[in-house]
Amino acid sequence: MLMPHHHLQAVSRSAALSLIAGGVLATARPGAAQTTAPVVKIGAQAIDAAGEAYYGTDTGIFSANGITPLVTTLTNGATIINAVLSGDIDVGEANPMAVAGAIANGIPLIMLAPAVLYSKRDANADLVVAKDAPFKQPKDLIGATFGVASLGDFNQISLFAWLDINGIPRASVKFVELPFSQVGVALQRGLVQASFISEPLKSDAVRAGLIRDFGDTYLAVAPEIAVVVWFTTKSWLQKNPDTAKKLVSGIFATAKWANTHTAESAPILARVSKMDPAVVAGMKRLYFATSNERRFVEPILDVGAKYGGLPRAVPFEEYSAYPAF
Questions:
Q1: Quick one: which of 96, 41, 91, 31 has its CA closest to 63?
Q2: How confident is the model at residue 305 (pLDDT cuts 50, 70, 90)?
Q3: The pLDDT of residue 181 is above 60
Q4: Which of 158, 181, 196, 315 has its CA 20 to 30 A from that of 207?
């Protein structure tokens, strides 16, 4: 059942910490090389947006940079954050707004590196409508109900910026939580008028004739932003500063490889995600950050504070580990 929500709900520190529980780990994938290099337990989702964890492990890039990766596949960013906080894993990849929300609530997380970047170069509309919907311009969605995967996440915050740019009063629209897997059917049934969706489910819904592109909310935030980040706890970073530096070097080396070897990374993604290799081959692949720059993250922190996605402003210096390096 779709549960409508009209306001963002902040998560308290106690509520967030109460989510931490045992038994969250799925199948772990050790790095191929058996060395004395420090083991780093990594949590990721089996999707292209978190592909660096798998690409760096399978190619040996992490090992070449002095760490032994142990990758655990988890279902979503919230589960990964909880696993990092519980100590079941050391580092993870998640939505930048989720990490910022934890920090704003006093939970000791910190970003190690940006992961996936989004810009016009990589544009793949995230906001879709039913294929036969009558909507032709943004203002046609005044009064609409929008589907979001998680209330208060970066998708919804970026939508607020998109609504403002297009002159749509935020008070005129509603939001419901809607898993990406249900977007096509929900749009066809009129349960929502527009929704976010991600690959590979977007390609599946397009091929099924259920949806069409309508808007690109990320570009309403900034010309280029990080939509996934690597993070850890402040305590792990303080205890393992050299290992963290090696990991970040491996992340950026993996990014350079992945950006120029999509044909080689496709079989890895197909295997870990259990997707049809032909589907992966036809997907629009993502682009990864090869350096840490304020402009990749700071606009996200700014809109989070502006639109109520964060209970307080989070400065870049508090968010990023790089000043500590």
A1: 31
A2: very high
A3: yes
A4: 158
The C-alpha angle 38, 43, 49, rounded to 5 degrees, equals 120
Tokens of 4: 């409508």
More confident residue, 240 or 2: 240
CA distances from 187 to 140, 157, 204, 264 (A): 15, 21, 14, 35
What tokens does 48 get? 């292209």
The residue length of the chain stands at: 325
Query: Which amino acid appears at position 218 of this protein?
Result: Y
Q: Token pair for residue 252?
A: 């950026």
Q: What is the DSSP letter of 320?
A: B
Q: Which of 195, 251, 261 is CA-nearest to residue 228?
A: 251
CA distances from 318 to 50, 153, 229, 291 (A): 23, 20, 15, 18
Query: Domains of the chain by range and CATH?
Result: 7-118+224-324 (3.40.190.10), 125-215 (3.40.190.10)
Q: Residue 28: which H helix or E strand, with range?
A: strand 28-30
Give the SS3 label for residue 64: helix
Cβ neighbours, 10 Å, residue 33: 13
The identity of residue 13, as a single letter, is R
Amino acid identity at 73: T
Q: Which of 91, 80, 71, 76 is nearest to 31 (CA)?
A: 71
> Which residue has 């996605």 as its token pair?
309
pLDDT digits (tens, 9 = 90+) for 100-112: 999 999 999 999 9
Chain centroid to CA 61: how far? Answer: 22
Read off the pLDDT of residues 7-55 as tens digits, 9 standing for 90 and up: 333 333 333 333 333 333 333 445 544 458 999 999 999 989 999 999 9
B/e letters for 110-129, b = 16+ CB within 10 Å, e = fewer, are bbbbbbbbbeeeeebbbbbb
Cα(215)–Cα(10) distance, rounded to whole angstroms?
Answer: 27
